[in-house]
Amino acid sequence: MDLTGSLELLWGDRPGPRRGPKPALTHELIARTGIAIADAEGLAAVSMQRVAADLGFTKMSLYRYVPGKSELVALMADLAMGTPPADLGEGDRFARLRAWALGLLPGFVRHPWVLEATTGPRVIGPNELAWMEAALAVLDGAGLGGAERMDVLAVLAGHVRNIAQQAATAPGGDAGTQFGAIVAEVVRERGDRYPAVRAALAEAAGGGEDEALGFGLDLILDGLRARIGDASPTRARPGADPTQS
Amino acid sequence: MDLTGSLELLWGDRPGPRRGPKPALTHELIARTGIAIADAEGLAAVSMQRVAADLGFTKMSLYRYVPGKSELVALMADLAMGTPPADLGEGDRFARLRAWALGLLPGFVRHPWVLEATTGPRVIGPNELAWMEAALAVLDGAGLGGAERMDVLAVLAGHVRNIAQQAATAPGGDAGTQFGAIVAEVVRERGDRYPAVRAALAEAAGGGEDEALGFGLDLILDGLRARIGDASPTRARPGADPTQS
DNA sequence: CCTAACTGTGTCCATCGGAAGCAGTTCTAT
DNA sequence: ATAGAACTGCTTCCGATGGACACAGTTAGG
Description:
DNA-binding, mainly alpha, 12 helices
């Protein structure tokens, strides 16, 4: 598991060649081609061959730009994530965190493969780090420790990821591949052994549609409010660590 | 993406052959061999060839038991998850949910590849459904709707997954592949553009070690407590939906 | 018995990620 | 101006992968 390649590719200010033919491709063009394939046919359909073919080049040409496939996928994922919204609204800390989390969803929904691509040890890219920065800025001066601020992020982002994963459908057609639907199908004939699951599904079937995202966010943010209180978002609480900027 | 194979493999009460030679292998033995490989060398090292070789059989023999590799991985994942603890302790609802979530962690830590194996559309297996049942039973009669009960699960389990993913190290040696360490390395030279991240990292470096799991669980459970109150765990609150069993 | 059902295996194939070396092109140093 | 260094895209080649298919041996039920 060598991550230096991804690190240099994602973060390297590349010097730019001074001799030789002009490069016909760019990292971004290659990554966008891969993204288009992954969006349409899933991450498994992304091969060096396929990306190169869609670009009208040979497979080995890509290796002039990208050290390997995993690095290409990392590039795709960071690009697909996009940049965080410049403005999170005028509300208090919790409203802005809510807006941040909600803004995270469309990227995951439009590019479900990002979930697969960002599991396991990996290098964080500029866009992902910008998202992290945006949320940490909201938590600045809230009386939380550094690790705690990171943890709040992780919980929020993790919830959005989960929702996106549940909502990941096979856009080609059968909605039966939804996780909830699969669970329902499994439980339908074996409900006796899983009464609580059956009851929850039966209730959920009649109720509202897609409150999962908001419900979870409210849960987490309510817990946060109980912990840090409704302190003014722009002033640090007394006793906050003065070492933070 | 055909999931019927996984469904039948994970859930099928197979009729059992009545003629022909006795099968020399079992689903469980094959899956356990795959689990051993994945634990030691990662999910990428699990190939049909490799699993068969470790069993002393030919690659194609496995296809007599398993329809394909993805189904084998699904079997491995469900088996590695294990069964939920029979007893979640004597505390109130929140303490038992906490115990449930904490009990989820060791499986993920011992088998980090399960995180990769369980992203994307998939079929839920018996063990995973048993975990779901255990937590839903705790939430029974708490005055939550069916979908809300599922959402609470998703938030809790998602948090544990996140923590496990962050804690996933390369056991071979270099701890530099930890996500936090990678972030720190990236930010070290680019901290000016990410001041909030830098501040959080600087604070976190000096502080305590691994409070992330407990902190997040407290956050979520505090939010839950704020929502449903400290109602008696064994009696439904007035106004609870009577359609639930 | 003898045939249907089932086992494990050997062979074959398309595809994958990637290494190595090639000829052509362009910039820089002389 | 010119030689060589640097760079491009390409061709060729390789081992490994997941899987289709047909085959011979083995067992149990009619």
